[in-house]
Amino acid sequence: MSNFSCAILAGGQSRRFGSDKTLAKINGKSFTEILAEKLCRISDDVLIISKDSSKFDFNVESCRFVDDEYEQQCPLVGIITGLKKCKYDTLFVVSADSPFININLVKEMYKLIKNGDVLLPVIDGKIYTLFGFYKKSSLKILEFYFEKGVYRLLDIYDDLNVFYLDNLEFILEYDKEMLSFLNINTREDYERAKEIAQKSGLEI
Ligand SMILES: Nc1nc2c(ncn2[C@@H]2O[C@H](COP(=O)(O)OP(=O)(O)OP(=O)(O)O)[C@@H](O)[C@H]2O)c(=O)[nH]1
After folding, report:
1. What is the mean predicted confidence (pLDDT) over 177-202?
2. Is 69:84 a contact under the CB 8 Å cutoff?
3. For residues 184 and 98, is the Cβ–Cβ distance under 8 A?
4. Considering only CA atoms, which of 104, 90, 89, 96 is closest in space to residue 66?
5. Domain count within the chain
6. Which helix (H) or strand (E) holds 185?
7. Which pLDDT score, from 0 to 100, does residue 110 have?
8. CA-16 nearest atom, ligand 1
9. CA of 173 relative to ligand 1 center, distance in Å
10. What CATH code is carried by the domain that includes residue 91?
11. Whole-prediction pTM value?
């Protein structure tokens, strides 16, 4: 087991999806449950963070359901809640709409964290804010911005020591198809995800 906690952010509004996407299923399991099962293989402290944990109807060993500390709707709230409640100093953060994450990539990324506050992958210039590691050392700054009403993560990183993992080869070594970065935002994304799961026979 690794020495980091994991937070599955499952508290969004799913406006583009049209219904709560964190409960949408592939092969009979919700995205959230698929992620919980994967992450509990690499961490003994997995938090499923949402606005109302009673919406979930599954249980996975070493996973805890946690309610957001604040009512505002944004991933920043989920991250702050996770950092306050997690057992380890380092928290892997992932959005609940990414059921295809590769846990070997997550483990290898963790090894790259040295003294920084945050580690985030960058692909084709895009920063993946919800597939990365956040240390407890980032909490004060995150809360400071939240209290000022700045909720957009990209507006906060300048004040944190962020390690940007801008190394495509490294990522491809563990996740050839880069499915870790596939977010399911719309119904079209959902249909595509079901096809991917079926075609590749992927263990998702
Ligand atoms: N815990 C928690 N997670 C959140 C919150 N807001 C968004 N998330 C999660 O953050 C991830 C990214 O959210 P988005 O896809 O940008 O937003 P969304 O509200 O889910 O979807 P849209 O309404 O279509 O933008 C998703 O996994 C959400 O469930 C929040 O307030 N609390």
Report:
1. 89
2. yes
3. yes
4. 96
5. 1
6. none
7. 96
8. 24
9. 29
10. 3.90.550.10
11. 0.96
